[in-house]
Structure formats: C-alpha cells, structure tokens
C-alpha cells in the first residue's frame, strides 16, 4: 500500500462521545406506559422507546383526575445502551495471555505480515495494536486508534504494515488509517480525508488486502464480492451464485479470492493484473467440492498451497490446492475429519498447515492435519460466542476473541506435528547436512514443548 500513500490525504482521528439519542422532551399519551424489551431491538438500543397500551384501572383513573395534565411526568429509564460483555474467567495450562484493553466486544483480529503486531477492533470505537513480543510478558500494553463517530467491525493490515483498513459498522464503508512510527517506537494513526464510497446492498462479512498491495476485497452476505483499487474505485464485481455468502477471503499469496456459503463448495477466483500492474480481469480458478451441506468457513495456509474447510455436514476437510488449474487440474482432498458444528463456526489453518483449529460457540478444538485427530480442546474460552480465530505468522500461537478479551494459546499441537514430520523425513534421507538440519528442528520443537508443559500456572 506504500505506492498508494499519495492518494491518502490525512485527517487526525480523535475520540468523540456519541450524541444523545433521546429527545429533549417526551410527552406520553394518557394511560400509556413506557416499556423497554428485555431483549431490545436495534431501534430500542439506539434510544427509540416503545409505548404499550395498558387497560385503565381505578387507581390510574383517580390519579389522572387528581393531577392536571401538564403536571404529570413520565419516569424515563436511562438512555438505552449496548449491553457490555461481562468479565469471563477462563484458565488453562496452555493459555499464554489474556489481552485486556477493550471495553466492548472484540469482533476481529489480524496479524501483520511481519508477525510483530496483532490488530483488534471492538464496538468501543477503538482499534488496538498489540506487540506479539509481549504475549509472554506479565503486562500487555497496546496502542489505540480511535474511530471517529463510528466503530470498526473488521480490521486488516496493509502488506507493508504502514496502514490498516477498517469496515465501519454505521458508515458501512472502508476507512483507511496510516501508521506513522515515532522516535520512541510508538505509532500515530491518521485517517484518510475520505472514506470509500458505499457500494454494497447487504451487510459486509469480510474485507481483505492482497499481499501484493494491488487490490482490496469486500464481501457481503448476499452473493457479492467487490474488488477495489487502493483509491477506492471498484475494479470488478463477482456474483458467487451461492445463494448467500457465509465467508470470503483473499489468499495469503494475494492472487486469489474465495467464498463459501449455502452451497456445499468453495469457489476460488484469480484476480489478474498485467505486467505493468494494470488490472485485467477476474477469472474462475478452481472449486473445492466434497461436502454435502453448506460451508461455514475456510482458511488458507501461508503459502496458499493448502486449505481447510468446515461444513454444516459435521465434517472438516483438508485440501491440496497446489494444482495447475489452468490445465483443468482439480484440488486434491487430503483428509476428512468429523467435528462438532454449532453456529457460529470458524476454522483456522496454521500457516505451516500442520494443525487446524475449529471454534464452535464458545469453545475451540485443535486437530492435526496428518491424521485428523483431536489434539487439544478448550471449553468455554469466552463469555460470548467466538467472533474470530487466527494463528500468528510463526504458527506458535493460536488467538481467539469473543468478549472483551483476546486469548492467546500455545500451539503445542503444532510443535508435536513438527516433531512427527521431521522424524519421518529423517528416516528417508541420507544426506548429512539435511539430517543435521532435521535433528536441530526436532530438538528445538521438543525444547519448546518441555518449556510449555514445565511452566507453572
């Protein structure tokens, strides 16, 4: 996105308290009472109160007659607010840290391509940046970017880590923030002077930036995926023809966009550019076929050569997508595993493709991808449904969010998978240098496991 920095003129982002949503005066009708639903609708949550007719009673009639009309006052409840998630207690021997700083529900996580930072956004009108180096520290400091007059539902880093984009909940559009590093190592955050234009007609479910920095993707819950350039101009519109989109994403290599939904397949397109960097077309690449019901979620490995999917049919699948699709070669199904599926459901494939983590409701189950066996189970991780799940770029940590906290776990299943894979390779090689390298990797993984399980909690 560095090449597009000139297109982003800046304005300072500053916190702003929300304006009062209640009118200055409310004149209740006679024999009406103000009523707030125990489960308020969005209108009520924004301060629009409902009136409910109640039958007259002798007491009410006499009270009405005793006081003149102008002297009776309605006792109003406090302005309706979004319920804040309650603190949730969770402990586990593999829990590295609980990152606490948000005052609202955290909805999205994203690691920078450098692996140094984790971005999170919540309905408290802030985006926070956490240093991954501090995950194992006692204190977890973060940098805060304020979202003016709105809050972010989704956040994504630019490839060069000099900017990030957010999807605005109320504005229903993309806003770009530039990150400027100060002498003390901290950042200042500056929002662009103009947000992207509104184009979607349905709620947006995900956004992404290509690692190449050539395009931005937005996907909505109907069947629409839009491809944008960095200036906020639409390059292409994709109709997925999947009845509805459940999820969509840009591949880590930056070449592909993919979607899943009501139909039992994942569709993948290539976004094509010319040698000079000019956009050409979006063309169908390949499909993942094999599930018997709609697909909730999918995930890529870091090199985009592997994918994992989880479906309503109660299975998750592991795929080899390193194929010559231009020669009509289809992806290979490597593994099918059974799993518990309750909505909302997410799947995250580790960058090295050794393990897959599936979240259902408030719990997480981790599987190895060699045999599909369950390796770890974390129950009741959050006080609310898990909203995002991701591995860090090194595959050392698994991170989840769902209430006000972000929880970080050791990826012990990944270390065990490395040991198993390296031992298998060690038996097949006679080259001395290769054997030494494999033995070093095995020793390193075993030391990491010993340190994790030897840690006192």
UniProtKB/TrEMBL annotation:
GO molecular function: phosphoprotein binding; protein kinase binding; translation initiation factor binding
Leader peptide range in chain numbering: none
Compositional bias segments (type: Basic residues): 73-82
InterPro entries (alphabetical): WBSCR13 (IPR042410), WD40/YVTN_repeat-like_dom_sf (IPR015943), WD40_PAC1 (IPR020472), WD40_repeat_CS (IPR019775), WD40_repeat_dom_sf (IPR036322), WD40_rpt (IPR001680)
Pfam families in the cross-refs: WD40
Region (Disordered): 52-87
WD repeat ranges, renumbered to this chain: 99-133, 197-231, 288-320
Keywords carried by this UniProt record: Repeat, WD repeat
A GO biological-process term: cellular response to glucose starvation
Designated name of the protein: Transducin beta like 2
Species name: Anser brachyrhynchus
Gene: TBL2
């Amino acid at each position: 996105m560095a090449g597009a920095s000139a297109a982003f003129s800046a304005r300072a982002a500053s916190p702003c308290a929300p304006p009062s949503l209640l009118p200055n005066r409310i004149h209740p009708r006679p024999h009406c009472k103000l009523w707030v639903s125990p489960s308020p609708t969005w209108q009520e949550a924004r301060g629009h109160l409902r009136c409910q007719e109640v039958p007259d009673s002798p007491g009410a009639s006499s009270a009405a007659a005793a006081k003149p009309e102008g002297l009776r006052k309605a006792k109003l409840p406090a302005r309706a607010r979004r319920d804040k998630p309650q603190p949730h207690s969770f402990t586990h021997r593999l829990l590295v840290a609980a990152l606490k700083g948000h005052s609202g529900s955290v909805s999205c996580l994203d690691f920078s391509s450098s692996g140094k930072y984790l971005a999170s956004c919540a309905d408290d009108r802030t985006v926070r940046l956490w240093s991954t180096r501090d995950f194992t520290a006692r204190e977890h400091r973060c940098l805060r970017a304020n979202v003016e007059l709105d809050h972010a539902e989704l956040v994504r880093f630019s490839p060069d880590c000099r900017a990030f984009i957010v999807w605005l909940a109320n504005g229903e559009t993309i806003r770009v923030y530039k990150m400027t590093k100060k002498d003390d190592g901290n950042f200042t955050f500056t929002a662009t002077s103009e947000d992207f234009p509104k184009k979607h007609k349905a709620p947006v479910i995900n956004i992404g930036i290509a690692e190449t920095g050539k395009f931005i993707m937005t996907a909505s819950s109907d069947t629409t995926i839009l491809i944008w350039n960095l200036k906020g101009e639409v390059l292409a519109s994709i109709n997925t023809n999947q009845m509805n989109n459940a999820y969509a994403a840009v591949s880590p290599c930056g070449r592909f966009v993919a979607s899943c939904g009501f139909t039992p397949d994942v569709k993948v397109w290539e976004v094509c550019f010319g040698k000079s960097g000019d956009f050409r077309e979006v063309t169908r690449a390949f499909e993942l076929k094999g599930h018997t019901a709609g697909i909730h979620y999918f995930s890529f490995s870091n090199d985009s050569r592997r994918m994992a999917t989880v479906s309503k049919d109660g299975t998750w699948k592991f795929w080899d997508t390193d194929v010559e699709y231009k020669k009509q070669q289809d992806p290979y199904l490597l593994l099918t595993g059974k799993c518990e599926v309750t909505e909302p459901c997410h799947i995250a494939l580790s960058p090295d493709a050794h393990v897959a983590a599936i979240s259902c409701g408030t719990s997480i189950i981790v599987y190895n991808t060699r045999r599909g066996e369950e390796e770890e189970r974390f129950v009741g991780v959050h006080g609310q449904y898990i909203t995002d799940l991701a591995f860090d770029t090194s595959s050392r940590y698994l991170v989840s969010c769902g209430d006000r906290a972000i929880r970080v776990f050791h990826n012990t299943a990944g270390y065990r998978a490395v040991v198993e894979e390296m031992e298998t390779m060690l038996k097949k090689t006679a080259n001395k240098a290769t054997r030494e390298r494999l033995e070093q990797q095995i020793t390193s993984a075993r030391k990491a496991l010993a340190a994790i399980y030897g840690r006192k909690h």
